[in-house]
Every structure is written in C-alpha cells, then in structure tokens.
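Example complex used in Figure S2.
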Amino acid sequence: MIRFEGVTKEYADGTTAVGGLSLNAPTGAITVLVGPSGCGKTTSLRMVNRMIEPTAGRITIDGEDTATMDPARLRRGIGYVIQHAGLFPHRTVVDNVATVPRLLGWDRRKARDRSMELLERVGLPAELARRYPHQLSGGQQQRVGVARALAADPPVMLMDEPFSAVDPVVREQLQDEFLRLQAELGKTILFVTHDIDEAVKLGDQVAVLRVGGRLAQLDAPGRLLADPADDFVAEFVGRDRGYRGLAFRPAPPLEPREEPTVPLGAAPEEVRRVTADWVLVVDAGRPVGWVEPRAIDAPVTTDRLHRGGTVARLDGSLRAILDAALSSPSGRGVLVDDDGLLLGTVTASAVVAALDGVPRTDPVEPPEPVER
Amino acid sequence: MTRDVLDWLLDGAHWQGGEGIPLRVWQHVAYSLIAVGIAAVLAVPAGLWVGHTGRGRFLAVNLVGILRAVPSLGLLFASLMILGPKIPGELGVHVPVQVVLVVLAMPPVLAGAYAGVEAVDPAARDAARGMGMQGRDVLLRVELPCALPLVFSGLRSAVLQVVATATLAATVGLGGLGRYLIDGLAVRDYAQMAGGAVLVAALALLLDLLAATLQRLVVSPGLTGKTGRRTAAGETAASSDPRDVGVLTEGSTR
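Predicted assembly (626 residues):
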C-alpha cells in the first residue's frame, strides 16, 4: 500500500502544488489521481519515487517511509511509465526493456530472456525486439514503456498519463490490455490522468484533486458518478454521468427474447421467410450482424451486413446492454454468453423498465476509510 | 593555369625528400589532430557537464561566441610574443601555433557537446532517473550516447576549420602544407600556391570522410534513422481481439 500522510509540496515562490494530501492506494488495486491541470496530480505521483521531494508530510510504501530510502534504490523497485514513453532512442526495444534488470546487476542473458517474455506479455511480436524506438508507432512505444516498467517485477507502479499521447482507438485498446494485464499481475498502481473517462474506466478507486493539490473526493468510480461530493466534482465528472454510471451497475435480471436468425450464406428467400424488418445473421451460433430482407438479392455475405450494432454479455454492465439495444438497427439489442454465443435480444424499453428495479448506489464496497 | 597546377602536383620531385609533399601532409595532419585532440579533451567533458547540469550555460554560450570572433592571425602573433620567449627551443614556436588552433577548435566542439546533451528527449532523461539511474549513469548511458551525433558534428566542423587554418604554421617558420603557400608567394610561384591549396582541401575532405566513417561505427543506428521506417504490423497484430464477433463488436462492458 502506498500511503500519503499530509503530504505538501510548496515551491520557493510560495505556490502550493500539493496541499496536505492524505490518501491510501491499496495493495493490488489501481488508484487514479484525476483533476484539471495544475491540481498537483503529477507532482503527487512524482513525490512517491522522490523525483520531487515533499516539503511536509510523509509517504510510505508498505509501511516504509520513502524519505529514509536511497532514491536510486527506491526507484529501481517501482515501475515508472510516463506520457511519451521516454524510451532510449539509442537502444533496441529489448535493451530498453532490460534497463532496470541490468541496473540491478542481472546477467545479460537473464535480462534479455525476461525482456522477451515481457514483450510477449504486452502484446508485441518478438520480431520488434531488435528494432529501435523510432521504428515503432506511438502505441507500440507505449507498450514497450509498460514492459520496461514491469521488467524487474516491481510490486508498485507509477503511471503518469501513459495513454494520453496516442490516438483514441489505440488508447482504448491499450486501456483494455492494461486492465487484462493488471488482472493477471495485481500490482499496486498509482495512475495519473486528466481524463475523467479514463479514470472511471481504469480505477478501482478514483481520487479527484482540485487546484492546489487538495483532495475533493476519493471513491469507487461508480459512486463518484452517482454521488459527487460537491459542485467541483460534479462539474468535473461532467455531463452524461447518469448514463456513464450505468457502466458500474450490474445488469438486472433480464429475460432475453428469442430472436429468429438466418445463417451466413442464407439465400434471399430464406431471409424473407422471417417476417421482420431486420433479420439477425449468425455464424456457428455467434451473431455477426443484421440484414434487411427487402434489400437482399443474393446469398448473405459479411459485406452485406449492417455494422452499427454492438453486442453485450447478459451478465455485463447495464451500459453495455442498453448500448446494444440503442445501437441496433432493429431496436433489439443482441445478448451473448461468455463464449459469444447468441442468447437472444432485448429492447431498450425492457432495459429501462428493468432499471427501475435496481438500486442506484454502487454495490461495490467503498474503499478503505481515509483520514482527511 | 590549371595545367600548371596539375604539372606541379604530378611532378615526382615534389613527392620525395625531406621537404616533399608526404612530409608536409604528415606535419599538417599532426598539427591539426593535436589541436583537435586537445580541444576535444577540454571541451567535450565541459560541454557534457554544461548540458547535463544546465549550469554555466550562459558562460559556455558566450565563450563560444567570443572564441569564434578571435582573429587567428592576430592571436598567433600575440601568443608568439607572450609565450614564445618563455618556452625554450622549437617548442617556443609550436606552442603558440597549437594555442591558436585549439582556440579555433574549441567553439564548435563545446557547442556540439552541450547542444547534444540539451537535445536529448526530456522524457528519456526523466525515465532514466525514474528507473533509478544515478546522475553519472544518466550522463554516460543515456545523454552521451544520444548526444554523439552532435558531438561528432562539432568535432568534424573543428577538423575542417583547423586543417584550413593550420597553414598559418608556415608563417612562423614551421612546416605543414602552408609552406607551399608562403614559399610560393615569396617567389611568385602561383602553381605551387594553388597546388598547396588543393592539397589542403583534399586533406580536409579525407579527414572528414574518416570522421564520418568513425561516426557511423560509434553512433547507434537508433539515432540516425537509417534503420528503415516503422511499420504498423505489430499494432494490427496486437489489436486482433478474439472476442470480436464478425462485424459486430462487443460494446464496452465496463
């Protein structure tokens, strides 16, 4: 656990970057620091590995006061990921990843083997290992940055806006893989972002900071959206928070309706036999898309399918299920099981009707109490 | 005229003996490399230190400007008058010449070194410190290797200037390719003068070529961009999500 106890950073000119911050980042969980620019979130993060020294207060990691530790030794035990990856341009990918193991005195071979293992872990093909950073895309560089931070298997990770310099599509992909990786590794992570959507997506708990480094609210993301502590937090979490909050509410018991389907490759007559404005096409039990019977004049191929709809798992979040219904051209949202096999469909009105029966507060246990 | 110069250069007699072209070239190379060597030993560490710490930058920038403005011939006679009498024998002439050449070589070498370190990606420097490198590691393992292209360009620029200016050695009675210019002028042998100038230029180009070769061997291919463009192959490979179902994609579940 990373513990901030009344941590303050004041600069010589009298500005307070962080004012009396107290919070706990629990072991094995992602704690996100989020806030507008100038709220001291990056300063707070950098005080953990003593890239910046606090002027008052104390930061402990698993009970040990960081101020008493040698800064270089402290940092070698903490994974550090930054916005533009900060890869060493003169070293190959594999040598970049091996940086901390080499600093710790591992022999070359062991460090290399470990690097190759990590590249695979973060989803990079082995042939990229011998390349140089300038030959990689922004998303690939960021993956290498994550692999490098994980190389010596540190229990604690500090991540400073690691995904904000890549385009939105790659960002989402990196976020999803980051969550998958964290589910496997269970690191204690302090994560800084200015993006509230990223914060609620990634955080087990989210700390909203206001300018001057003061904690405005520390809560699970669902609670943050459902119950902002004050006007500042409400404004910061922004519009659509009711809809976005659905992502943190489990689906109510829904009865999927049976949906008539045709297989991929079905003839036009077969499609028209189904009396509906839109017909769902399946392939080996998996939904692949919708077709309009009157627009079909040849056997159904994938390029004739409507591509608008999303699918949701029956046990997924309310947001995913409602989105499936709203995005479907037929108005019927496609539900699947964990293996992606079709279970049936549900309409938006059925989802909304079911919503009324679900409690509005977050069922997740609130994070540990915090001294403020 | 061109014909005369060619005749002079190709005359076998000029390539032999105690005052032949090979000896003059050798002397010229020696004057030049000693000067650039001394300048490198002084200015590269100083420049790295300035770039690494950010301290003394104002001084370094102004020193570079001032040294560049010093007229070489004037400095040669000044240092000959001041240092010459204090140093016995032939060294009394050699040292003032070296002083001039070192002063000439310092500005580009110093500027290359501090600019090289300053140009290192701040994110790479921050990452190096954040991963637990000490100041010396950051300088030697990250900043210096990344600064090498600019360090080399400073050194190469110094070599070119020093080779051209080392002709001044002849004006105070020393050897080198400058002899052909001075001696040719004295007897109005323009072919000899032009031949000497051609040799100076050729030597400068040759040394620059050697330096370029050394640079290729020493500087990481990651910095020169000669390793081919990036491809998106890995990116697309990594994006293939097994949960993608046909053209329908699973909505965000969180």
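The two ends of chain B are 85 Å apart (CA to CA). Chain B has one domain: 2-239.
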